[in-house]
Write a structure and sequence with these properties.
8 strands; alpha+beta; Jelly Rolls; four-stranded antiparallel sheet; 2 domains; 195 residues; homodimer; DNA-binding
DNA sequence: TAAATAAAATGAACTAGATTAAGAAGTAAC
DNA sequence: GTTACTTCTTAATCTAGTTCATTTTATTTA
């Protein structure tokens, strides 16, 4: 018997589901264990799922024309991992999603979720509200990346997600901040010597 | 008598509203004329509205610690203008939204929209689907800004929005792409001499 | 139509951050 | 515990893009 409470509590922060609605939702959830370094999304394949992280950590990244990895998002417990563009348009993904640790996820398929959103108003509202939040957040990141220096972005991330910084390799953080690992190393050294 | 058809057609691309639902929606819409250079959002004030552009062009920008303007979004007819973070959290905005031309907008207030989303399932779905799309788009922009050169981002914008490039001042585009106006000028010169 | 203002172009000097290459340190695998 | 593999650090060199200062060209306003 799977314990869906982390997901249901997340949902409950935005809307209230009846018992029956909650059951309809958990009926479409499937649980997966994912080993470190394993991919759950790969370029060329359509991203079929919204994946809720029960335990572990993931990153979404893509490989640019320059042949380098660029990390689009990093997620830990109680976050979702998706290649959103691929998911909503149901077209092949451009990104990888990789487990950074041995992880457990709840997966919900596009073909199950969409009808459920049409059917159950509260679930539609849940995804509306959470996506609005994610969108507002994403805009902030755009602002950061066009208006702040590498060091400022690093400070900002450190202040916002101190617990995540501990968990992820430095080259992942660098590729998330949009800088080279060497330069992040330099920033860290600079900071360390200051304090 | 105001003609709401542009907005209703936009909605119709995502969901279908009954006549009554459409009326409930248009009942909360108010129309405004906005002169060029006029602000509809300003830092310190809560962004109360989702504004649909009937005619004209807008940009959302903010002034960084460096004292420079950074353009967060540019919109023309059939787009929405909002400081999303301010709007969904109902906290004071950090951004300006400025009319780039004499414009006409449909404004819908947060305090009217939220109850309507709770009440009318199709309207909730409309905002869910459009925000999902906006979010996917925003993520792509993040990828661009962390992984592409200034010139590549310029080319990309030019290819995607050739009609908008004609309409907006160059310094606005530069601040959207995250580069200095001088450098954009240089890129353009470089391109012109090539072809 | 002139005068005033805003926007764009040009070029020289500068800097944040990339690149390259080599070594050090940590982790995993046998 | 030794070999191999991955991650992190350091330093020298290089470049995309900034800054600053000046001139040219558009656009407003009167």
């Amino acid at each position: 018997m799977v314990d869906y409470s982390p997901l249901l509590e997340n949902i409950n922060r935005y809307v209230s589901l009846t018992g029956e609605e909650a059951t309809e939702l958990t009926n479409i959830v499937s649980t997966s264990k994912v080993k470190r370094k394993q991919f759950i999304i790969q370029p060329g394949f359509v991203c079929q799922n919204r994946s809720y992280i029960v335990k572990g950590a993931f990153r979404v990244f893509y490989i640019g024309n320059d042949g380098k990895e660029h990390t689009v998002s990093i997620g830990v417990e109680d976050w979702f991992v998706t290649d959103f563009y691929s998911y909503i348009n149901q077209v092949p993904a451009l990104n990888y999603a990789e487990a950074l640790e041995d992880s457990v996820i709840f997966q919900m398929n596009y073909n199950d979720i969409e009808p459920l959103c049409k059917k159950i108003h509260a679930i539609s509202e849940y995804f509306r509200l959470t996506t609005e939040k994610a969108f507002a957040f994403s805009r902030r990141r755009v602002i950061s990346s066009i208006s702040k220096t590498a060091e400022e972005r690093y400070e900002e991330y450190l202040a916002s997600y101190p617990h995540i910084v501990q968990r992820i390799p430095q080259y992942v953080l660098a590729s998330y901040l949009g800088i080279s690992p060497e330069f992040l190393s330099k920033i860290r050294k600079r900071k360390a010597s200051k304090s």
